[in-house]
Sequence to fold (452 residues):
Amino acid sequence: MKNLLTAVRWPRWALPLTRTSGPLPRPSVLNWAFDVTLAAVVLVTVMVYALEGDIDGRQDGGRPEPETGFDPDGPAGPLPPEPPEPPEPPEPADVEPGWVYDLPAHDTRSTIAAVLIALIATLPLAVRRRFPLAVMWVVIAAAAVTPESAPRLTFYACVIAAYSAAAYSPHRLATLLSLPVMYLAAGSLTGSSLPTVPNEYVPLLVIVPITIAANGLRMWKQRTEDGNARVVTLERERTEAVRRATEHERSRIARELHDVVTHNVSMMVIQAGAARKVMDNSPDQAREALLAVEAGGRAAMTELRHVMGLLTTDADTDGELSPQPGLARLDELIAGVRDTGVTVESINDGEPRELPSGVDLAAYRVVQEALTNAVKHAVGASITVVVSHRTTELLVEVTDTGGTPAPSAADGNGRGLIGLRERLAVYGGTLEAGAPPSGGYRVTARIPLEPV
Fold:
């Protein structure tokens, strides 16, 4: 059901009436149960009044005036002896004025009209949360036709409807304009007086609102404190998440820089040392070694440019970045190591398949780090690189036969293998490094893959 204000085509000057401060409320099952019960209680109260009350305004009930024993217009003189008094009839039950009037007879038309007004005014209260402004307008219409002698038929409904519209209606301007209309309809236009309240109910009408207001204030303060505590907790969690993300990003960039710089610089150092040794006796070999140093420097700059691209948001640098290396460039990596004079054998096992970019890069970095460590720590050793494509995993194994450490081996701090383990852990992989029974050193990486 569309809201009445939005369904009607209003003129331009009346458009502010259609503005809302939010959506209509969506009452819960408990809210529906409470509103239906409230409407039923009010309905029963006003129905009792409509059926038993004095709708025509005859509050004296037509009782005859009691006779006295003295006639002021009669002849003077002593009165005749009074006859014995008959037994007094039982006194009628006390009837509180203004609550239920004791009438011997009712006007049928007035009673039917009062019942209809009571039904029109109270039944809509069951949907007062869902359609607060519409309920208020219905109650205003019922109050406008309420007899002057029976204000209680719509008085309770007016109070509840006015509160509901003020509390739940998103049409604030229309609600504020409807409140004085209800005031006029309930009393000023009809000329009726508000119903009186018996004295015994006055303390109840004072204590109950104060209790409800105090409880509402306490709940509001508690919700405010809980909300502030949640905000503080969320802020603390956000700060912690930012800190962890920053540390994770720093570790990732550190791994990339280590893998890029360590391998290429190690190859450049070896080639430069070889060029220095043969420069006098074999200028051609020295020239080739220097060309290898130049190629290694260019490769290092290319990968460093890619790593630095991770730290910038400038879109103009995208065209200068090369793709991330993977197993497709493994032959190029091994050829660069062979140029330094190291014997490297490459073995591919299984049918190659397309790998996720992160897994492809991780496998490449494993081979790169293992080759770098072998060149630094096992001078004169031969190296075997095995890449095995299996159904559920990718196996990368690099084994060297052992040798003597190079002078640059003293600069190592073990960060390379730690970075590889962290990189592989992202994809559920594992890394094993150690000396096999046959001697030398072996690095084995296992990365799980989705079965084909």
In short: Residues 202-278 form the longest helix (77 residues).
